[in-house]
Amino acid sequence: MEVLYRSTRGQGETITASKAILKGLSEDGGLFVPTQIPALDIPMAELAKMSYQETAYEVMSRMLTDFTGEELKTCIANAYDEKFDTKAIAPLKEANGAYYLELFHGATIAFKDMALSILPHLMTTAAKKNHAEHEIVILTATSGDTGKAAMAGFADVPGTKIIVFYPKNGVSAIQEKQMVTQKGNNTYVVGITGNFDDAQTAVKKMFNDPELAAEIGKAGYQFSSANSINIGRLVPQIVYYVYAYTSLLREGKIKEGQAINIVVPTGNFGNILAAFYAKQMGLPVHKLICASNQNKVLFDFFTTGTYDKKRDFVLTSSPSMDILVSSNLERLVYRIAGNDAEKCAEFMKSLSENGEYTISEDMKAQLADFYGNYCTEEETAEAIYNVYRSSDYVIDTHTAVAAGVYEKYKNDTKDTDTVTVIASTASPYKFSRSVMSALKEELLEDDFALIDRLSEISKVTVPNAVEEIRTAPVLHDCVVDAVDMPNAVRNILGCN
User: Could you read off the pLDDT of 112-161 as tens digits, one per residue?
Assistant: First the structure.
C-alpha cells in the first residue's frame, strides 16, 4: 500500500514521503500527515524476536513507502549504530511500579537522538531521489534538546548546513554547553533574547517567507526542518513504542494483544503523537497519558476543548517542555476534525490571530484515547525523590513530570493494574542541578563536580556526551533578538 502525505491546511494535493521530508513544512504553513495510517500487519510475537534495527525497518517501511528497502535499511544501519551506548538502543528499566523506556542512550543523551540520528540520512536520500539542486539548510528552533541532537546528526553531512536558534536564558547549563561547543563546518548556533515560542514562531515565518526563499535560492540553498514538524522526525519515533511493547512481550511481562498504558512528558506534542500513531497502526494501547509541566496548555486543552496560549510563560526545571504553542497538536486536530483541512486551517488561523481556538464536542469525544494532567515544580521534584527512594533509580526532570502525572492518573482512574511504559526522555545528567536539588543533595557550585557526585549516587557512569564537554571550547557565541533571526540566517548563508 502506497502511503502519501498531504498538508493539514491543504486542499487535497498529495506528495510522497521523501518530498514531505525534504520540504519539512508545507507552503501553506500546514504540517504533512499521512493520507492513511497503515496497519502494522505483522504479529507482535514475530516483532518480539527482532532487534531495534529490524523493528525500525518493519515500522518505517510501512510509512515511508517511496524509499526502497535497501535505502531504508542503509539509513537505519547508519543511524542506530555505536553512537548508542547500548545494543538495545532503547532499553526498559522497571522502577516504582512502571517500566521506564530509556530514550537517552544516543550521542546527546536525550530522546531527540532516536529520530535525529536517522533524519539526516533520510533527508540526503530524499534529496537524491528528488534531484534537489540546492544545498539543504536545516533551520531549527530548540527548547534545549532538538538543537544539539540535530547538530550531532547533521554535522559535516555533505550537502547540508544546520542553523539552530535557542532561548539564551531558557535552557540548562549542560544543554547550552552541549550546543555552543558543537563541532562541524556546517553547524551554526544562535542564542536569542526571547523564549522558545519566539524562536519557533520566527522559524515558521522564515519557512513561509517567499522573498527570503528567493534570496537563499539565488545563493544555492533551500530550507528544511529538523523539528518534529518534519514527518521524517515523527515516523522514527513510532518505532520505540512498538519496540517497548515487544520487549515486554519478549520478557514475559505481558501477553500478546494485552493493552498497555503509555505516559509521555511533552510540550510540543510530537512524542505522544508518535505513540498515538503507533496505536492507530495496531499497537495495543489502553490509554495515552499526556504529561505537562506548569506550562499546562495541553492539560487545559484535554480538559476543556479550548487551546489557549494567552498565558504567562513559566521557566521550569523541565525546559524542553516550556512551550505554549504545541506545533504537533495540529496533526491530531486535523485527524479529529475528520481530516478536514479547511476546518484545521481555521483553528490555526484563530490561534495565530486570537491566541486560542475551541474544538467541537464531537471532536472532543474523539480524545478518549488520551488522559492529560500536569505537575507543579514541587511535584516534579517530589517524583524524582520518590522514585529514587523506592527503587534506587534516578530520573531527570522531564521524566519526573511523567512519573508524577502517572500517579495522578492512577488516583483519578483507579487503573493500577494496566502495565505502563513511561517515556524517559533525557538522562538525569542533562539536568543535574535540578535533579540533585530534588534528591536533597548539596548543590556544589561547579556543574561538573555536581555531575561526579550524581554519578556516585546513581551508580551510573557519566555519559560520554557530558565528559566530552568538560573542557571543550565555546565555538558559537552569537546572540540576537528574535526579530533579527532572518538577518542572522542571511549573514550565515552570505546573502547580505
Answer: 999 999 999 999 999 999 998 899 999 999 987 888 999 999 999 988 99
Beta carbons within 10 angstroms of residue 205's beta carbon: 14
Paired with 308 in beta bridges are 356
What are 144's three cell numbers? 534545549
> Grid coordinates standing for 378?
514541587
Contacts of residue 193, defined as CB under 8 A and 6 or more positions apart, other chains included, come to 168, 479, 480, 481, 482
Contact 229, 139 (CB under 8 A): no
Judge contact between 268 and 228, C-beta under 8 A: yes
> 375 with 399: CB under 8 angstroms?
no
pLDDT in tens, 357-388: 999 999 999 999 999 999 999 999 999 999 99
Rg of the chain over CA atoms, in angstroms? 21
Task: List all residues 6 or more positions away from 128 whose beta carbon is below 8 Å from its beta carbon.
Answer: none
Half-sphere exposure of 295 (CA within 13 A, CB side): 26
The cell for 273 is 503523537
Predicted TM-score of the model (pTM): 0.93
